[in-house]
# Entry
Amino acid sequence: MEKNKLKILMVSPEAVPYIKSGGLADAVGALAETLARAGHEVGVVLPLYSAIDYTKNKLEPFHSPMEVYTGESRELCAVHRSISSSGVNYYFIEYNAFYSRDGIYHDPDFKDFTDNAKRYAFLSGAALKLCLDIGFKPDIVHAHDWQGAAAMAYLKIWYHSDPILSSAKGFLTIHNLGHQGVYPVENYNYLGFGWENFTSDKYEDHGRINLLKGGMFFADAVNTVSPNYARETLYGGMDEGLGNFLHSKGNKYFGILNGADYSEWDPSTDKFLPANYSSEDLAGKRICKEKLQDEFKLKRHADVPIIGVVGRFAYQKGIDVIASVIDGILQNMEIQFVILGTGDKSLEHFFGDLPKRWPGKAGSYIGYSNELAHLIEAGSDLFLMPSRYEPCGLNQIYSLRYGTLPIVRDTGGLTDTVEQYIEADGSGTGFLFKDLNSTSLYFTVGWAISTYYDRKNHMSKMIQSAMAKNFSWEKAAEEYLRAYRGIL
Ligand code: ADP
Ligand code: GLC
# Structure
């Protein structure tokens, strides 16, 4: 292997195309592929969830049995593998007691699995043990979110003098500080970190275990997924209780903006659309709009703007604030509205019922559908994302490329990717607002809608500016490489 080529082992709970609940999967899959295309040797370790289609994803048995240590026992599991066209080795840990069940992190009623601390620590332990068993000597072990974070500790606690792993550096990406993996102390022995590490600077958090915090301590560098979210978590009161620990990393904590995988998310090639289009010829977008209207039983109307929403119904996303104003918006504005998502049960009921109150004007799909996510990006005129906080956000980046102008809260990665519309000259790529409440949401939507009807030239100019934006993974991967090399 050339000297400047790195060996990278990622540990992640999700990655496209195998398993996805949100943007983490998009980010991990795209980063791994981009690094591999640049010539680096990349492995990604994932759980073999029952939702992963073994045949369709071309998995094959790879290594069995594999003995994995926990703090309390030795367990046997099996490893399967799928190699992507760019040459990334995806390894799947088969351990049925943990991964063969309905759901990734929670049951169908959205109740967190009570053994999640053990499930994901096991994944980390298995990832590192795999390196030993197959003689893969990584330069970087790159863990994603609290689910991969235990790998940072095992590197330093278990493997600091191991011939294969002792030279590896630990890199932790925080995709979402709102999820830290906080679990009861009863799990601690199983995790095998040692009670000397159950201290408030590492794993102890008000008497419970905090997997992300401990991982941050042991990682050689930590990043999050946009520069603005890095700033907000350090200085903007959005640290979710971990500010001191982020500050203590010094210049080893920073933001790297995600990219978008334009091989999946570009209207000129998108295979889910009834017609493709580009900034030079937007005719296909009108066909997508018709299809979207049909799909969601909206009246066919070329000149009424559609506002689209795709996202997890979680507190983070501010969907509850949409719920508080959407009837007023539908009452007072000449618009159509579509929403795709799943999560909070009361929001699922609210938006599930919305089309009954606004037939022909509002449509919803409660569930997960990649195909509909693409259609909404393409067929809508505006994309609404009023997040309370947003480490990066990918949907607004996709929206830009689809010429579907984002209406977003001025926070996190939304600030880094959407440029405010300036009424004086029609510059900008979307509509931003500061405070998250029903009034500001209502009036910002109103501003976007009046722009749509009254300043068509500005809309066209913004659509062109938005579609020309390029948030490529190549650029993001270069930044990751620079960061990896910084700690090596
Ligand atoms: P987050 O990772 O916080 O959920 P992002 O904007 O980074 O937010 O990424 C969300 C990703 O998940 C996008 O690719 C989006 O299309 C997808 N997604 C979210 N909810 C659904 C859903 N119900 N059906 C299909 N795709 C969804
Ligand atoms: C998380 C964040 C989201 C980010 C994604 C990928 O799920 O909520 O903002 O885009 O991870 O990094």
